[in-house]
Amino acid sequence: MSPFQLLIKPVGDRCNLRCSYCFYCGTENRLAGALDADRRAEPIMPDRLLEPMVREFLSYRMPQSVFCWQGGEPTLAGLDFFKRVVELQQEHGVRRQRVGNAFQTNGLLIDGDWARFLGEYHFLVGLSIDGPRDVHEAMRGKSFDATMRAAQLFRQFGVEFNILAVVSRANVERGAEVYRWFADRGYDNLQFIPCREVREDGSLTPESITAEEFGGFLTAVFDEWWKDGVNRVSERNIDSALAYHLQGEPTMCTYQERCSDYLMIERGGEVFPCDFFGRPEWLLGHLGERPMHEFIEDARAEKFGVLKSQAAAECRECEFWAMCHGGCPRDRRPDGKSHYCEGYRAFFAASQTRLRQLAATLRGR
């Protein structure tokens, strides 16, 4: 059995913000046909699901057992919920077993108790900040001060955290500026996530960006990153491109050859192959119906597992095919090409000479 991770939504899509570009907002309404009414009545994943989930996952004794906690906003589950998570992990883990917890938050509820806990138990936290105040609050409401306070507490209590920045209409023309704003404040681990949300009629929402705009944003970020000294800041898209030039394989799931490295678990125990495919037609089943490893094997072997390979035929002729493999299936257009195709090509072309040089230097060391 190949290793896999769990992405768990302990409060479903509930959140104390309603960001205008949010992908998760309203997902439970779209899942009405897949979610059991009695399970939906419980606002937080109950212990009767949590305990056997942790126990079974740790029983596989994988090289590293990773639990990723998302939402909505997972802090709404309460600090006691996550203390129980750690208690269960300690109870069902074995000596020297490596267990990791990743945690995504908007930071609004983070206080000293939360930060102390996350630091003590080595949670890796993704904190959502889109850039300077005007950029951040254009899409995320009046939350900038609370989010920055959370970042300060994370530093105070030694919490390892990275920045999750959505690239939307608010900042897509300001790539160099946004990168510089983060770098100057010592945020050295960045993930830039493009905004592409589609209405029911197939048109893009006003917050969404085009392929060309995203390519321009990433190229501007890369130019600043290169000038900054390549060892100072880690950015996920750049790291993935560098990994390809260094070892022949990109590291981001968006760009990798296949999907199905994790299962998404809803608060009612519903199992899906991916958080972007949390829709009734992709429901794999419910926790406890059969072993988790069967869910992941089905996801890899059946229709979800072949989505990556269904890119447009012309994509395979592209010089950058091995760097992106057609991108995330969620972003595919009717013609089979990624919505971001032209942007990816622009970024890869602008960065490849310098990244090849860097990869050669690193191999020489």
Describe the structure.
With 365 residues, the chain is α/β, with parallel strands linked by helices. Helices cover 39% and strands 13% of the residues. It has 13 helices and 10 strands. The chain has helices spanning 27-30, 37-40, 47-59, 79-92, 112-120, 133-140, 144-156, 175-184, 211-228, 236-247, 292-301, 321-324, 341-364, and strands at residues 5-8, 65-69, 99-105, 124-128, 160-167, 189-194, 234-235, 262-265, 270-272, 285-286. Strands 7-6-5-4-3-2-1-8-9-10 form a 10-stranded mixed β-sheet. Strand 2, helix 4 and strand 3 form a beta-alpha-beta unit. Helix 8 crosses helix 9 (211-228).
Write the layout of secondary structure elements.
Blueprint: E1 5-8, H1 27-30, H2 37-40, H3 47-59, E2 65-69, H4 79-92, E3 99-105, H5 112-120, E4 124-128, H6 133-140, H7 144-156, E5 160-167, H8 175-184, E6 189-194, H9 211-228, E7 234-235, H10 236-247, E8 262-265, E9 270-272, E10 285-286, H11 292-301, H12 321-324, H13 341-364
Parallel strand pairs: 1-2, 1-8, 2-3, 3-4, 4-5, 5-6, 6-7
Antiparallel strand pairs: 8-9, 9-10
Taken in chain order, the helices and strands follow as: EHHHEHEHEHHEHEHEHEEEHHH
The major beta sheet can be summarized as: 10 strands, mixed
Rounded to an integer, what's the Rg over CA atoms? 20 Å
Total DSSP E strands: 10
> Would you tell me the structural class of the helices and strands?
alpha/beta
What fraction of the residues are assigned to beta strands by DSSP?
5-15%
How many DSSP helices? 13
Give the end-to-end Cα distance, rounded to a whole number of Å.
34 Å
Low-pLDDT segments:
none
